[in-house]
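User: quick one, fold this
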Amino acid sequence: MSPMAATVESVRTATMNDVSGVARVLGRAFYHDPFFRWVFPDDNRRMAQTTRAFALIAGFGGVPEGRATVCEARERPGDAPVVCGAALWTPPGEPGERPSVMLRSLPHWITLVGLARLPEMLRYMMELRASSPEEAHWYLSSLGTAPAARGTGVGSRLLRAGLAQADADGVPVYLETMNSANIGYYERYDFRVVRAINDPAFPSTYCMLRPAV
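Assistant:
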């Protein structure tokens, strides 16, 4: 059992003080993810690049707009709690990123991924958007835990909190995963694959939907 297992605290909405923790946790969680291997192919640089990417996502939009949730844990009794898991959500009827947020963050993305990669990435994002349900839904864009917290139920706590909110709203939940190994995990929470994107130009992507309860 991880030493974090007995000290995990409840899920809460992230604040700006959590941005670095969210970026650190998700950057590590998604280091091997096929999408980020596609975006950042250099193994030696990917950790820093992925962490920076989540700092942009969380810092410009996810956290300020109240779309990020975190779990904290104490590594040892008496230690200050640290973020050990994070989830990024988009509520029903809201865009993934507001135009004003996109404009502010664009120079940082150009620096991070390079101008030449942006058109390719935008084509992929448009493909994802075309797969999104037309009906109102909650969207789970990212869910990850720190290595030391894996197997302690942190990811499940974060996911269940979001599903409970969706159930209260009476709407489905939608997500995409580029890692086929994740499909079984989400199926345990009643998600089902509704579309697979197998364009050789992009990472294989599985679009999953959990119906409204």
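User: anything notable?
Assistant: The helical segments are 19-29, 34-39, 43-62, 99-113, 118-131, 154-169, 183-187.
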